[in-house]
Amino acid sequence: MKIDLRKIPNTEKKFENKFNSVRIQGIFCKVTPHLVKIDSLITGNVKITCSRCGEKCEKELDEKLIFFVSDGIYEGKEDILVLESEDGFIDFDEICQSEIASLLSDYHLCKECEEKNEPINIEIIKEI
Ligand SMILES: [Zn+2]
User: Fold this and answer.
1) Closest to 21 (Cα-Cα) out of 93, 89, 117, 88
2) From the CA of 49, how far away is ligand 1's center (Å)?
3) Model-level pTM greater than 0.85?
4) What is the mean pLDDT of residues 1-21?
5) How far is Cα of residue 2 from the mean position of the Cα atoms in its chain?
6) Interval between CA 101 and ligand 1 midpoint (Å)
7) Domain presence at residue 10
8) Closest Cα partner for 85 from 36, 33, 40?
9) What does the pLDDT look like over 41-70, one tens digit per residue?
């Protein structure tokens, strides 16, 4: 789903977008003529590969994400998460896609490996 930044109202509006198995929903509104605030929740399931045994498993997503989209280059100085839109649109499919990609690049353990994950033995060196 692509949304024209110019058509986003100054009052909060609900949105929802589904991409593959990932859903992004929340509210957006314009905070300045060229900046939109998005308060969202990303949920769903992503198939990942266990970093230890290579088994495929599912990772549940449940992540709150607050970010801004600027129409063009963001020139403000506030320390906020800003996506710069080149074409004046927000592409929620792309946001879901990049969320999936960043999840896939992380280190993951499947449930079995997590359970097998033995606690690290700490050797206590006796004081002489
Ligand atoms: Zn595993």
Assistant:
1) 93
2) 8
3) no
4) 94
5) 17
6) 20
7) yes
8) 36
9) 999 999 999 989 999 988 889 999 999 999
